[in-house]
Design a protein that fits this description.
heterotrimer, A alpha/beta, B alpha/beta, C alpha/beta, A: alpha/beta, 26% strand, C: alpha/beta, 11 helices, globular
């Protein structure tokens, strides 16, 4: 059967695969390695915590199993680079198709735009993305297409340990969106989801916003998604990127660690 | 402590001891205690001119015959005795075995009783024996460092020296004289003369005990025959007459450190029963695990007052031809300690001297001999003690 | 006079490490009454319930009246040293390599004559006080000390063999994030440790007292997360041969019984931090500690567990916590047997509520972390094995000894 016997305009998937193999489409890994020392979200100590990633070696070519090496792993749904489903937040709890096992699979592949607030964040750890920031970005790159991931580049993933979490006496201080820009993106731009480099789609101090945690509140309230602890956003162009982000199919899962891959046309990458 | 008033004990009339047997000692032996005991029993039987089946009484003392006791040896050796005893009393075994056997033959419960002691000594058997020697030793002695009785006797020696002014030289005199005796004894493992200087300069074991204060553990066996006088005569067997015995265990328990033994309680009875006095005794075989114990026996057996042991040793010569013949074969200190046979060594030597069968140095004109036993260090002192007076002459 | 210890030199890397040997460790069951007393630092002997005779060595019938009623009781430990000997050679391999070794006969004022190890400063004829200690085999022995303290007496070689003195030893405090861990680090540093490594997990998460901890003398922060096997193994890989005393200060205190706390997340955290954390430490550090039990002045000496006294009996208000502590106690008992071949003591330090935020609603008496720290140092100096610190812990111990069922009800009401 010839490759082009399908209806006119249907995509040529083999050409697509070939373009990846040939390097014409670059695959950029936006995922942190899952390891025990990667920080997790910290809840007040009297509450249950998000489980950090842990590995227990079952055997390593030894008396526990001579010819093989394998581990048992444990983690929370929100450990490391991870996906948030709408059921994770109270505002999304009753929506249809709101858990990782019921989200339509097609929604795990979507275009993305990258908004760079890295310089502002370097100067101010509590920097909030504003509507004006988005409008300024659109003036340069065009209107954000509907059902796009909006990835917030802050270069926070380049920070280590203590500076990454930036925990002070009054909590975390990390950049994120202000309440207004979340409403704008959700209501005016049909946002697919928000992706950040920090722990949390919301700013570190978002507990004090109105409403608290507006990214979670509005996004999940609209049945949309979150991606956190992303890396390598600085290798992405502002437009033309497609994200593959498929969480584990956990029954009634509120999220999961996952591999987030960005597909970037070679001519446009590295900008 | 006052002696008990002498009570009328049944005399040992007509009880004799003969066939004194020593199986030559060896420092280490791959043979079992059964082998050593068997050799001694065989020689007694041959000396008496009888067969094994004629032996109707057996008394066994041995630390290394396990897992057997005396009963196992009956089948092992092909004996069918009507009187059987196992005497696990270490250095007091000889005297106590003799006491039991004497009453048995006296009452007619047995006619020919072989008393035998034998032990093997394998390279680690001494240490293994010690680690399970007694419950009190396990709980309260071995955790304290010595790995054996040396430290316990060092404390006894030290205490005795402080109390009575004994010096190391005094103990050395005993050891040197015994070595002189041993030079004549063919089975002695120590064959070189010992001078007082060598004794004093020897390496310290546990202050104030030095090398020549300690016996050398070895393998060996000793035995004798107990029967009635007329039986011995009919066998043509030279024998010594049993005059008296005593036995006492755990004497003076309230003495904080042992400085006297059980003999002190019963010594009057020993001499009264024998109708002799210490002056009548021609030689003494004391139990010599350490020279301090020899000195204690010289006191407690009535040869001098308590505390006069040092003076006594300084003013007497202890060789077989001396003014106080003592441990005339050389004692364990020079011959070697073959386990429980060490408790028979003195008694066997006593019988030899009294029957004219000495194989080493001879005590001139020996008519009355005293053999003393002691041993079984349970915690901090020897618990067992005993003594026997025998006489030579009409056999 | 006891020669004060000098700071140990660096270990010669070409020399074979001396393997730990143990003195004779078999005891009759009755004699184990002494071991129970020594574990807690008491001086007890059997006292006849019928005629009041004080009896030694331990036995099963009174030598004065034949009574079988011979309980262990606290006894006056004063006596006089009657005679001593210096052992110069021994068939016992443990003592053979520790010659010369002094022992003596002490006449106890209370009656019996006791053969005891001697402290170097005690001379023949002098008055002495006796103590029961656990030797390297984990069994009780008696040591006779001078009647009054003498300079540097903790440095006496026979005494040091019986204790886990932190002086010149290197210590690992496994969790310095808490007030208790910090107090432990400070107490051990002041107690003469040559260095105190303090484990801190989640370096990205600040904790109160961090600045002060970093400034303490002879304290070095090391990465250690007791909930992470890899972290514990890596820490051990780097530090295990340099740890002579390990003090596990891991803490996870939350209120709630078994039913009350909904879900198992907190229970899992509790088990990870306390029970599985202990397992990780045991597996990662245990073998090296065990191998170094006879390795010079700064030999491996102790694995110290801080355990709630409610490991021994549940306090339902903190019921799930009590259960986890109980698991830790059982594991520590097993560890005690497993480390014994190396002559390394497992020390369980039991304590009640602390003056910290997790016991906020509990009324006094509560224990200050600094008091607990000092008690641990003292327990190590004394070579104790079972230590009860503070009023609550001592109260629980006393009640348990009389009627455990009554205590169960009292705590559950």
């Amino acid at each position: 059967m010839s490759r082009n016997t399908d209806a006119i305009g249907s995509p040529d998937l083999l050409a697509f695969a070939g373009a990846i193999a040939a390097g014409e489409i670059e695959v950029v890994d936006l995922t942190h390695t899952l390891s025990p020392d990667f920080p997790t979200i910290v809840m007040p100590p009297e509450l249950g915590q998000c489980a950090p990633f842990r590995m227990e070696e079952v055997s390593r070519y030894d008396e526990r199993g001579s010819a093989w090496y394998w581990n048992n792993i444990s983690m929370g749904e929100h450990t490391g680079t991870h996906f948030d489903a709408p059921v994770h937040w109270i505002s999304g709890k009753d929506l249809p198709e709101n858990s990782v096992d019921t989200i339509p699979a097609a929604n795990f592949i979507a275009p993305a735009v990258v908004i760079d607030i890295s310089q502002q964040s370097a100067a101010n750890a509590d920097y909030e993305l504003t509507v004006a920031d988005v409008e300024a970005w659109e003036a340069m790159h065009g209107r954000i297409p509907p059902r796009s991931w909006v990835l917030l580049r802050t270069d926070w993933s380049k920070r280590n340990g203590r500076d990454y979490v930036n925990m002070r006496e009054d909590g975390q201080h990390t950049p994120g969106p202000c309440p207004e820009v979340v409403r704008f993106l959700v209501e005016q731009r049909d946002l697919h989801g928000l992706g950040t480099e920090t722990i949390g789609t919301d700013a570190g101090q978002a507990f004090h916003f109105n409403p608290p945690y507006p990214a979670h509140y509005y996004m999940h309230g609209k049945g949309r998604y979150g991606l956190q602890c992303l890396a390598n956003l600085d290798r992405l162009p502002p437009i033309g990127v497609v994200i593959l982000a498929a969480p584990l199919k956990i029954r009634r899962g509120s999220g999961s660690p996952l591999r987030v891959l960005a597909l970037v046309p070679r001519a446009r990458s590295g900008m | 402590m006052a002696e008990r008033p002498s009570s009328p004990r049944l005399p040992y009339d007509g009880v004799v001891v003969g066939a004194p047997v020593t199986i030559p000692y060896r420092r280490y032996s791959t043979n079992t205690a059964h082998w050593w005991v068997g050799r001694a029993v065989r020689e007694v039987v041959q000396r008496a001119g009888v067969r094994g089946i004629d032996i109707d009484g057996l008394s066994l003392s041995s630390f290394t015959v396990g897992p057997d006791t005396a009963i196992g040896l009956t089948q092992h050796l092909g004996l069918s005795p009507r009187w059987l005893d196992h005497v696990p009393l270490g250095g007091a075994s000889g005297v106590v075995a003799l006491r039991r056997a004497a009453r048995a033959v006296q009452c007619g419960d047995a006619e020919l009783v072989v008393c035998v002691a034998g032990d093997t000594n394998q390279v680690d058997s001494f240490r293994r024996m010690l680690s399970t020697f007694s419950r009190f030793a396990q709980d309260a002695v071995y955790p304290y460092g010595s790995g054996g009785p040396n430290a316990s006797f060092a404390l006894i020696t030290r205490n005795y020296m402080m109390r009575y002014g004994a010096t190391r030289e005094d103990f050395g005199r005993i050891c040197v004289a015994q070595r002189d005796n041993a030079l004549h004894f063919p089975h002695a493992l120590m064959k070189k003369k010992l001078t007082l200087d060598e004794y004093m300069g020897a390496r310290a074991i546990s202050d104030p005990i030095h090398l020549f204060d300690c016996v050398m553990p070895c393998a060996g066996a000793e035995a004798f025959l107990v029967c009635k006088e007329d039986v011995a005569r009919s066998l043509g067997l030279p024998a010594a007459r049993l005059l008296a015995t005593v036995e006492r265990h755990n004497a003076f328990p309230d003495d904080p450190i042992q400085y006297r033994g059980g003999w002190a309680m019963d010594i009057g009875e020993l001499y009264a029963m024998a109708a002799v006095t210490p002056d009548d005794v021609d030689f003494v075989q004391t139990y010599d695990d350490y020279p301090v114990i020899c000195m204690m026996q010289m006191e407690d057996l009535g040869f001098c007052a308590k505390g006069e042991g040092p003076d006594f040793v300084r003013s007497h010569t202890l060789t077989a031809d001396g003014s106080f013949p003592h441990n005339t074969s050389g004692g364990q200190l020079s011959v070697g300690q073959a386990g429980a046979a060490g408790g028979f060594l003195g008694l066997v030597e006593t019988v030899r001297q009294l029957t004219g069968e000495a194989i080493g140095a001879t005590v001139p004109d020996a008519k009355v001999g005293l053999a003393s036993g002691f041993g079984m260090i349970n915690y901090d002192r020897g618990l067992a003690s005993g003594a026997a007076l025998l006489a030579g002459g009409q056999a | 006079m006891t020669e004060p210890l000098s700071r140990p030199k660096r270990k010669d890397p070409l020399k074979k490490t001396r393997i730990p040997l143990l003195p004779q460790g078999t005891r009759s069951r009755t004699a184990l009454g002494l071991t129970a007393a020594a574990a807690e630092g008491r001086f007890q002997l059997q006292v006849c319930g019928d005629c009041a005779a004080v009896v030694y060595p331990p036995r099963d019938a009174c030598p004065r009246c034949l009574s079988a009623n011979l309980p262990f009781r606290d006894v006056d430990n004063g006596g006089t040293l009657l005679a001593e000997t210096t052992i110069r050679t021994s068939t016992d391999v443990y003592f053979r390599e520790r010659m010369p070794w002094r022992i003596g006969t002490v006449l106890l004022d209370a009656g019996p004559a006791i053969v005891a190890h001697l402290h170097g400063d005690l001379r023949e004829g002098e008055r002495t006080r006796l103590e029961l200690k656990l030797d390297k085999s984990g069994q009780a022995i008696v040591i006779a000390l001078p009647a009054r303290d003498t300079p540097n007496m903790a440095d006496d070689p026979q005494w040091r063999e019986l204790t886990c003195d932190p002086k010149y030893r290197r210590v690992l405090v496994t969790d310095g994030r808490t007030a208790m861990g910090q107090a432990m680090a400070e107490a051990l540093s002041q107690g003469g440790a040559s260095i105190v490594f303090v484990g801190v997990a989640d370096p990205w998460k600040p904790f109160p007292g961090e600045d002060r901890l970093r400034k303490l003398e002879r304290v070095e922060i090391v990465a250690l997360d007791l909930t992470d096997t890899i972290s514990v193994n890596e820490c051990a890989g780097e530090f295990a041969p340099r740890v002579d005393i390990l003090v596990n200060t891991a803490e996870h205190v939350r209120t709630g019984g078994i039913i009350e706390r909904k879900g198992l997340t907190v229970a899992r955290e509790e088990l990870e931090v306390r029970y599985l954390g202990l397992m990780r430490l045991a597996q990662a550090f245990g073998p090296v500690l065990r191998a170094r039990g006879a390795d010079g002045i700064n030999s491996a000496a102790a694995f110290v567990n801080l355990v709630s006294v409610f490991a021994l009996t549940s306090w339902p208000a903190y019921g799930a916590f009590s259960a986890t502590e109980a698991a830790c106690l059982s594991a520590a008992q097993s560890l005690r047997a497993e480390l014994r071949p190396g002559g390394v003591k497992v020390v369980n330090v039991f304590f009640g509520p602390l003056e910290t935020e997790w016991y906020q609603a509990v009324p006094p008496p509560k224990l200050a972390p600094s008091t607990l720290g000092r008690a641990v140092v003292q327990a190590l100096r004394q070579g104790l094995e079972d230590v009860f610190v503070g009023d609550i812990a001592e109260d629980i111990r006393a009640r348990l000894a009389v009627n455990p069922k009554a205590l169960e009800r009292e705590l559950g009401s």
